[in-house]
Give the backbone structure.
Amino acid sequence: MNYLLHLFIMISIYSILAMSINIITGYAGLLSLAHAAFYGIGAYTTTLMMIKLGINFFPALICGIIVTGLLSLAIGYPSLKLKGDYFVLTTIGFQIIIFSILYNWISLTRGPYGIPGIPRPSLLGHEVSSLPEYFVFSLIIALVVFIFVRLLANSPFSRALRAMRDDELAASAMGKDVFRLKICSIMVGSSLAAIAGALYATYVTYIDPTSFTLDESIFILTLLLVGGSGNLRGPIVGAIFMVLLPEALRFIGLPDTIAPNVRQIIYGLLLIILMRYRPQGLAGEYRFE
Amino acid sequence: MLLQFIANGIVNGAIFAILALGFGLVYNTTHTFHIAYAAIYTTAAYCCYTLYRIAGLPLLISILGGLISGVILGCIIELLVYRPLVKRDAPLSVALISSIGVYIIVINIIALIYGNETKILIPGIQKTYQLGSVILTQIQVIELIIGIVVCIAYSLLLRTTNFGKLIRALADNPNLLSAFGVDIYHLRLQVFALSSLLASIAACLVALDVGIDPYVGMPAMLISAVSMIVGGVGIFVSPALGGLLLGIIQSLAIWKISARWQDLVTFAILIIFLLLRPQGIMGRRRRLEEL
């Protein structure tokens, strides 16, 4: 039972990540490989606020969201003035810079030792500490994010984003400020990733930089691509599928020593096969054309 | 001390130059952001290691084996992954994502076979040469010489041979080239083979110098991509200049700051260039539609 609850909590966290990268990649059509960096900034900022300043989960989370949103400008601004691949490369660069800062700024982040003993969030004086309670808590947060993304998806902002994704020139000819739309989509998407980071940190109660590597960014992008991007279903389908897949592998009796590598190989194969035969993913709408 | 660090920087820069030339070749001709370049690099180094340390073959033959394995992998990737996408006229981001997939697969197969720890090809202390106050190891001298030779040979190949003319034409306008009766798929294959050869040369040299682990490919690929942008996209020889510059700046950063912040310095340079001189050192300013 605890095992199932754990899986559901992970699905909630990864659903938030998939929904947030969907705004950047699915709606705005920008391929981002820096999502684990935003996830990490959110996790670290929230954690440090809670531990060093001793403030409550929700104000700390808001600080995390703001810091992440502001830092996302650092990749948006230099790369979006240029076209295409520069953005991908800049996101990889940003990912590596953030990892390097988390790993080497030992006086602030404790570097490779990680930060243990992160307090669980408390709600009206009650600490959300047991697993079932945390499950409900993470589900509620994921639902709030879902409702927010749903409102966003039906808003003029999302229509403008999709118009820009499908034909940038036409969108700017219709008077849409393409640069501003892209920057906004990155800010919104990365701020939502910070929520997932805060949930992860307070769930595991320990964070270290190895949870926020380039591999994790690739994994988050894979979540979205497997599920499908550009609509509301895709990211959730992707998160459920990709969280349950390794567990299915465990049940067929793969030895633990080779399991992580085999899992990665399957992700790689999935990416290639999907791109070749079903670029819109399992339940997606947007096809990267 | 300054001279020593500059010398180290030039040696690294020579390697970065070879890498960046190979990456730039693929990017400029096919516009593929070739992340699997990292997988080719790692494969060549591991093949060289296997032949030399496990099979016990002579060093030169092992290196040759490494180069051949890299070229074969590069061709396989083009044939099985990129070519079907090009035939379907798929967008470039699809090729990029597939490329990430190839990278993940190859790296994890290597990690499964060899494990994650660093492998050393030449154990022990190497012979050194002293020139004034600068000390270089034997392998560093070889790296430098091969770097120079490769850069010269590559620019001669581009300027004087028919193949060079064809790949410049491919970069300009593939449709027109195929209308002239050139088999562009065959030409693309040659481009990928040549680029993989360059990656493999650099990989074997670095493997001999500092050893290898399964994750060396990604930083190498990123450095070549940054070198290409710093040098100037669209020009075939400029990535070498970017690579050299990056090597020297990195080495000075290690001296003045710390080796821990090396990655940060690399990408700080990228961001500075994107903000201030997006066309690179040698590039001319182009209109947005031309990019």
